[in-house]
Each structure stands twice: as structure tokens, then as C-alpha cells.
Design brief:
Two copies of one chain form a homodimer. Chain A is 52% helix and 9% strand. In chain A, strands 2-1-3-4-5 form a five-stranded parallel beta sheet, with helices on both faces. In chain A, helix 7 packs across helix 11 and helix 8 runs parallel beside helix 11. The radius of gyration of chain A is 25 Å and the shape is elongated. At the A-B interface, helix 2, helix 5, helix 6, helix 8 and helix 11 of A face helix 5, helix 6, helix 7, helix 9 and helix 12 of B. Chain A binds a DNA duplex (30 and 30 nucleotides) through helix 2 and helix 4.
Chain lengths: 291, 291
DNA sequence: AAGAGCCTGTAACAAAAATTTCAGAATTAA
DNA sequence: TTAATTCTGAAATTTTTGTTACAGGCTCTT
């Protein structure tokens, strides 16, 4: 696993990063980004991938304490060998050694595994059906979230609002929810986010919405919110991580993927809206470009 | 994962074994025994390790359907790459669901890869230092986000508010930001979220905060917000996905991991606060338990 | 603005890898 | 045993990779 000085290549790249020059940093970043595979290619390929010249590669290898490029490459192979022979070659093992066992990498493991499991359970047709449903601009969309999931709902709303008209965000104060129900028409869609601990108010809202022939799309956890029984479509995400809290990262992931799908469906309209939005930004100078 | 004929190198070695000559079998066995690492060495090393001549290696590679030794080696690299970098794509092959090529799985791949790359670049010490900083209850914490990242800031705030006292969420309307700056004291912390397109207002806020000796923790993308120069600590997340938008899932992931870390630091206080919160919930019946 | 000092890529060069040629060894068939 | 056939590696050759020298360019002083 270790090179000449008992350090892995990625450790050295990071350790010496400050002493590297512009082109060398560019190279170091490329190597770390595609660690360790890029380093196993020929020096020519490495240089081209990183957008630097081959001498830069040699110079950096020497700066890191290797005799030359082939020596660095041999070290990489040795690391790879060591890792490959360990039971499960999980991707995080490529991360810096020091991270091993660190909360951050355990968290990453959990989230990656959550994504995998969640994906395994999602029905592709549900996803496609929901994307199509939400692309139908004759239906209004109402978005609601609970105490923790409110920010997911907010994120989803922010994007949907750009993509299409007729999207409402339901305020977090549940006292005012009846007012929103008043505006729901048959055929409308209620997108609800509810994970444990499930909120009674969301169940009530779902009941009321359903009574008005509103189609409900629910983002929930693997156990399922009580509102699930009123939902026409459900996404069950895995949310457990090494923390006292659950992780909503996977829910966000599905929501973002859904946004991407809807966007594709409604691309003509969406593009026009996005352009218009850009113009408005420019005109109001609310947001300035950074060049 | 696949070579010219859609088969892995081992599969071909096994499949063609019968048609191989004595020296070639010797070589094939050596390659399989040390699969796949031996194949990544130079042709000379491979030949020596297997106890055959280099021409034998070339001949066998051609017999297996490769153009030459480098082509076989490139195939090996690609296999290895696929094995280590895409647990999900790999999983898809077994899953009945046949999500392959579906937007959802491409999205999942992108996010997983983003997590991996981001993790590769995060310095463990930065993470630990920030966790400790935010655990210091003598410092007030101010949280702010931009147009898109507002919901990340919101999520972070929601959790932090439970964990410790002295946390403020800065409203999204930037007109009122000076009011918030007024309340910032030296030693306070500003947690800012800013991804492209970077917002000028956040840069201004960071300037003002820094002038008051506030420590800035910045969540940004790989390119880095202009506010980065004022930040004491920065987290650079990868945010690119197959969509017109960027994905903030990785940012959320880091934020959640950070929350878990802070929670561990301040566990005594936090547990008390969480219990108290439970009681308040029960008493107000604002949120009911679902059993 | 001039000059020192450092970066960086081009280009020439050296080294090694990969391929091909070919002669002799091993094997097989008669 | 001998001749035909196939296999194999030494050696020559070609191709590619890796290294070095060097000059233009950039930045930072003065």
C-alpha cells in the first residue's frame, strides 16, 4: 500500500499540494479525481487527460519523492494490489487512508448504500409515470413538507417553479393548510414529503386532498408514512445513517432526478422559461455573474 | 467492463484455454492467478513473471482477439475501473428491474461518483476543525444560503437549532442582511452556502462578516464561490449531474455528516435538548407519534 | 519598464516496450 | 529415423514511452 516513504500516492499528492505549481496542481487534481486509474495509464495519456505536458508529469513525480513516473506508477499498482486483495473492494477504499473509519467515510458508505438499495426498490414505471404527471401543465402542483422535510419540499418547489407554471408551495404553518386545500381542484397534484416521525397533519392534509380528487405523490422512508394509503405514487427512500438523525440526502436525490426527468419532458416550455428568468436576473441585477 | 467481443479478459482466457499452446497456457495461468494486477505490468514483466518470452505474450493477446498487448491491458484497466467506481451500475446487472440506461440510474451513478470525488478532496482536518468550531457554544452561528442553496441552509439550520443554542437563520431577502450583520460578534461563525451561479450578495455579506471578525465556513462547488477568499474553511462539493441543474445532494451529504459530528461533540447538551424537545412536542401535540 | 526568477511547454533525445522476423527446438506422423 | 509441422525464444526492428535541455513566457520586484 505504501510508496518509498511509506505514504500512499494520494496522501503525497495532498500533502505536497501547497508546494505545487499551477500546472502541477491541475495534474494533481486530475489524478485525485480519477484515482487511482488515471495514474495507471501511460505518461502521455495522463498528461493529456490533465491538460498538461509530459515533463510536468515527470517533474511532479520527482517532487513527490519518486524517482520518475514509472516509479510512481509502480507504487499505485502496489496500492491497488493491496486493496484488491482485501475482502470487499469498495470504492471508498480509494479515498485517503486517513479517512478510513472516519465519520465522514462511514457516512458516505451509508448514503451510497442507501442510494443503491433505494434504487433497487424503485419501480421505473412509477418514476416515469410521476414525471409525466408532473409535466402535465393542466394540473396544478402543490408541494408540502414536514418539520424536517420542509427543506426538501422547498428545494423541489424552487426548481419546479422555474420549470413550469401552476406550482404552489404550501407554507409550513399547518394552521393555514385548509386555505390551500380550498384552492385544490380535481386533477391537481399534491407532492408531499413525510418521513419518520410522521406528522399527523400531513395525513390529514392528504385525506382532505384526496377527497377533492387530487392525485398524491409521496416521498417517504422505507417504512412508509401513514399518508401512503392515500398516495397514488410513492417513493420509499432509505434514510438511515450513523447519526441520531436520518439522512434526507437520498430523498433529495430522487427529487432532483425527477426534476431532471420533468425538465426533459417539458423542455420546450422550460427552456423558454429559463431564458426569460435569465433576462429577469440580468435586468434586476439581483444576481450577478461571476467571471 | 467489456473488451472487443463483449467479454472480460478472464472469461476469454478461460474460454480459449483449450486452443492455447504450452507456453501460452503457462502465461494464461499466471495471468489468472494474479488477476488482474499482473496484466497491468509491462509486457516484459508479464513475460518474466510467467516464465515465457514477450512474443508469446503478444501472440496470445492476438489469439484472444485483441489487437495487441496494449489493447488487452486497456481492457483490463477498463474492467477494473468499472468494478471500483460504479457499484450501482454493477448492481444493475443483477437487478431484475433493468434500470440500465434509465435517467434514474445515470443520475445515481453521477451522484455516487460525486460523493466519491468530493470525499477524495475533503481534508479530514478541515472537517474535524469545523465540527469543533461549530460545537463551541460560546460562538453564535449564523446560517445563510442563496437562491438554490437556501433549502440546504434551511435544512442545516433546522438540525443545528435542535443541537445547540445560539443559531440564527438569515432570511433569504438580502435587503435585510445588514440587520443580521449588526448582531454578529467577533468569534461568531457564518455558515454560507453558495454554488454557481455565485451570488454577489453573499460575497458582500461575507466581506461584512469578516470585517467583524466572524469566522466563515463555506459550502461551495468544485470551482469555488468568490466568497471563498474570505472563508476560513471551505467544502468543495461536486455538483454536476445529467440535468440542466446542478445537484446539491452532495452538499447536503456533507452538511448532514457535519451535523452528526457536531452532535457527537456536544452529545451531553444535545441529548438534554432533544429530550426537552420531545416533551414539548408531546405537550403541544403539534406532532404526534405514529406507532 | 527592465530584469530576476520561476513555470511550462516544445523539441530533441534516451530508454523501454511492443512487435516482427527467423532459426532452431520440440513434437508429431509416417 | 526422418521429414513435416508447429511452437518458441533470441535478436532485430519499430513504436511508444519517459526524460532532459532549453527557450519563451509569466509574475513579481525594483
Amino acid at each position: 500500500m505504501d510508496g518509498p516513504n511509506g505514504k500512499t500516492v494520494v496522501e503525497r499528492l495532498r500533502g505536497a499540494f501547497d508546494t505545487l505549481t499551477r500546472a502541477e496542481r491541475q495534474l494533481a487534481n486530475a489524478l485525485v479525481d480519477n484515482y487511482p486509474m488515471l495514474g495507471l495509464e501511460s505518461i502521455t495519456t495522463v498528461a493529456e487527460s490533465a491538460g498538461v505536458s509530459t515533463p510536468t508529469v515527470v517533474r511532479m513525480a520527482k517532487k513527490l519523492g519518486f524517482g520518475g513516473f514509472p516509479e510512481m506508477q509502480a507504487t499505485l499498482r502496489a496500492e491497488l494490489q493491496a486493496t484488491i486483495s482485501s475482502p470487499i473492494a469498495k470504492h471508498d477504499q480509494w479515498a485517503e487512508n486517513a479517512l478510513e473509519g472516519h465519520l465522514l467515510s462511514r457516512f458516505a458508505d451509508a448514503v451510497t448504500e442507501n442510494i443503491r438499495q433505494t434504487l433497487n426498490q424503485i419501480d421505473k414505471r412509477t418514476f416515469d409515470a410521476v414525471a409525466e404527471l408532473l409535466s402535465d401543465q393542466s394540473r396544478n402542483v402543490h408541494v408540502v413538507g414536514g418539520r424536517i422535510t420542509r427543506s426538501m419540499a422547498d428545494h423541489f418547489f424552487t426548481h419546479m417553479q422555474v420549470i413550469r407554471p401552476g406550482v404552489t408551495q404550501i407554507a409550513s404553518n399547518s394552521n393555514s393548510w385548509p386555505h390551500y386545500v380550498l384552492n385544490m381542484r380535481p386533477g391537481d397534484i399534491l407532492v408531499a414529503f413525510d418521513i419518520r416521525r410522521y406528522e399527523h397533519d400531513i395525513l390529514r392534509l392528504a385525506e382532505m386532498a384526496r377527497a377533492r380528487d387530487v392525485t398524491i405523490v409521496l416521498f417517504t422512508d422505507q417504512w412508509g408514512s401513514p399518508a401512503a394509503r392515500h398516495a397514488a405514487h410513492r417513493f420509499h427512500a432509505r434514510i438511515e445513517v450513523p447519526s441520531a438523525w436520518d439522512s434526507t440526502a437520498v430523498i433529495l436525490f430522487i427529487a432532483e432526478a425527477l426534476i431532471a426527468a420533468i425538465e426533459t419532458h417539458t423542455w420546450e416550455t422550460t427552456r423558454a422559461r429559463m431564458n426569460e428568468l435569465e433576462e429577469l436576473f440580468d435586468r434586476t441585477r439581483l444576481f450577478r455573474k461571476f467571471v
